[in-house]
Design a protein that fits this description.
Chain A has two domains: 3-264, L-amino peptidase D-ALA esterase/amidase; 272-392, Ubiquitin-like (UB roll). The longest helix of chain A has 19 residues, at 90-108. Chain A is α+β, with helices and mostly antiparallel strands. In chain A, 29% of the residues lie in helices and 22% in strands. The first copy, chain A, has helices at 62-69, 90-108, 129-142, 148-154, 202-214, 247-264, 283-294, 297-304, 310-317, 384-392; strands spanning 22-27, 38-43, 49-54, 77-82, 115-120, 163-164, 173-178, 191-196, 231-236, 272-280, 333-336, 339-343, 346-347, 361-367, 373-380. Chain A contains ten helices and 15 strands. Chains A and B meet through helix 8, helix 9, strand 13 and helix 10 of A and helix 8, helix 9, strand 13 and helix 10 of B.
Chain lengths: 395, 395
Amino acid sequence: MLFSRNTIPVDTELGVTAPQGFRAAGVSAGIKSAGKDVAVVVNDGPEVVSAHVLTQNRVFAAPVQWMKETTGSNYRAVILNSGGANAATGERGYRDSVETAQFVATKLGVEPAEVAVCSTGLIGELLPMGKIRAGAEEAIDLLSRDGGGDAALAIMTTDTRPKQAGIAGEYSIGSMVKGAGMLAPGMATMLCVITTDAVLTQAQAQRALDIAVEYSFNRIDSDGAMSTNDTVILMASGASGVEPADFTENLTAVAQSLARQLIGDAEGASHDVLIRVSGASSQEAGLAVARAISRSNLLKTAIFGNDPNWGRVIAQAGTVPADVAPFDPDALDVWFNGVPVCRSGGVGDDRSLVDLGSSRDVTIEIDLHAGQEVVELWTNDLTHDYVHENSAYST
Amino acid sequence: MLFSRNTIPVDTELGVTAPQGFRAAGVSAGIKSAGKDVAVVVNDGPEVVSAHVLTQNRVFAAPVQWMKETTGSNYRAVILNSGGANAATGERGYRDSVETAQFVATKLGVEPAEVAVCSTGLIGELLPMGKIRAGAEEAIDLLSRDGGGDAALAIMTTDTRPKQAGIAGEYSIGSMVKGAGMLAPGMATMLCVITTDAVLTQAQAQRALDIAVEYSFNRIDSDGAMSTNDTVILMASGASGVEPADFTENLTAVAQSLARQLIGDAEGASHDVLIRVSGASSQEAGLAVARAISRSNLLKTAIFGNDPNWGRVIAQAGTVPADVAPFDPDALDVWFNGVPVCRSGGVGDDRSLVDLGSSRDVTIEIDLHAGQEVVELWTNDLTHDYVHENSAYST
């Protein structure tokens, strides 16, 4: 399930309406100052199966609370808005999320508990409910079999482009995701809807989603932040009639494409950095080392400066406790873009052999020589543009 | 032992030669491109007691290895160099640290194990031993009772100013510290020498130092990095003849002054931020929440932009597991510079009431309403200058 070993072809033109049985729309309701900001995705069946993964943040938004109080296993529709996260908005915010679900349910003739609600944007501001209702009404009226692209546009915040991924075949998968900051473990400030016309039981759907999320969204870490609103929803219509044997692999490939697109559009980044930890004693050990490396502002600024600063790599590895990730510091090898700049914990080949300036993609590999496990994690560099975007975001 | 409640007056003009029984010198040996780069501090007694605290990083530098192999309890001298960390330099690097201690020991007529060695600068490069020897020789020849200031200059790297702190009285304490990046838990890229003419047993010295470090250097976190070289050394000469009852309190006050100076000179920072977590169920819980808040690049860039983004504060608190820091997310209160911008997990007073632009100092307080413990941690903002300095450091 490593990013670099995934050879399943994914089509980034296939959105949530690519699979049979789904309609979607995205409209401008005036919640953001410009652009589309309300999306609706509907599963027309014949089957209604869903699964979700929600933020692990203890401070979670009102729509997340609503979804925690539903089963999450039978969503017929999702309504999403950008322009406001409806987080830290108290009882009133929660009532707004419930009312949004009720409004959509009434319009579609389903139960409120069959409607998922997702919000993204600033924390601490109430949603303009008049605009939400008007946008929901307009979006539902516009639902169509080719509305996936508009829906993907409507969930963008600081994203510079919409993000979709899918696989077409005997059965199909389509998806959309948003998120460009706060990409982190236990997921990102990210809203993601994945649709499929495969025939799945709810247990199959949840298990496949858990695995796919673990090896995709939980393997990117842009800035160590974890959002209050993160949501991934999978909906299955069964419209293809196919009971697939390879659904988890294909779903993971789609989710990895989305995760890779998120990193590629992370706020202000100028390099995408694949951290590969090999020779780990366990997946947990490798992941702990990868996360420690990905969280070093010193390393991330060095990469911005095209500097293969391997000293900062091994210094970060050294911060992981030995009981979490056993390794001998004098055995560490580090490669930047294939050049072995650190051998056995000391100086390796000349760092001037490393070219970080010609390509956006950088691969840092560290071999712990402590086992056989390999972990990959995508992150990015820390740039002036990151500082600029995030110092000005709420003003 | 909170920073804000420490009322012991500390004099930032008092360096390592302020106490009786110490000589020091700092010289230019040409290791750095400009400025002094080798310092020596000697304890002339009558007593020779010392204690040290070393980096917790598993990847530690050659001089740290040397000090781990000495007892650390009877240092008569410390030699420090800037311009090279002697980290990730293998067997050869270790032999260089040993040889440095031997050279100084021979010149002073003491045992090599009585000489501490500290290095700071780039990782992965061998020290120019000819220059180290010449610098050590010159510094030893120049040792004097007023050499503390020169020694403080000689240990600077990206520091913009030397940092000293002391207390004069029946007995005295003096000190110097360097470090401006990689300030972090389990200490900073920091070399610190503290001297005193108090009469202390080795056990008293070590215990006082452990407490002082915990409430000072371990309560600052600039960028989450932990260095390979961090060292704090305390040396006691007993020359005052005083056996103090208040040594730990005074030592902590001195160490807090040094820690505060480190944050005030952190690379590229434009705001110094005191994070106060009150209402914590335990010190550990409060510290975990404080560290989570201090590590948010999103919050730190917001503060650079004079934006009291309390949503990012509570979102970071929410990433701390409930078994580490129990609290009710709906009970959280947050103040920026005294303005209650978040009440009971939701919107409080208007954020426009907060002025972050007029002063470098910012206080963020979060009340967890889960107990009586209070923890304070200093950090700073994330700025364009930080990105600039750290993307260009090794080039």
